[in-house]
Amino acid sequence: MAAQLRVYQSPDDSVYDESPEPSVRVSLGELLPLIALAHRRNYLWLQDFLDDQVTITPDLYEVLRTFRSYRPSA
To answer: Do residues 45 and 38 touch, judged by C-beta distance below 8 A?
Structure first.
């Protein structure tokens, strides 16, 4: 049985000009496995959020900056 496709009008771009204020708090331990799985399986919806900004604690920011420049020795 062939799949039926539906055609929808694209939404008005002006609706997406305003980003909603962040209002949901989740732990990094809850968030990371989901993002890693979506990235590993190349889910397209993840790309919709790549430009979103997240707020992290200053200590996590410092650890991530250090980790980014870390070069393990052989």
So the answer is: yes
- Give the whole-angstrom CA distance, residue 35 versus residue 50: 11
Q: pLDDT, tens digit, for every residue of 42-65?
A: 999 999 999 998 889 999 999 999
Helices (H), the chain: 28-40, 58-69
Please, what sign has the CA dihedral across residues 23, 29, 30, 34?
positive
Query: What digits encode the pLDDT tens for the residues 3-43?
Result: 676 777 766 655 555 667 778 889 999 999 999 999 999 99
Find, among 38, 64, 61, the residue nearest to 49 by Cα: 38
Q: What angle do CA 61, 62, 65 make, to 5 degrees?
A: 85
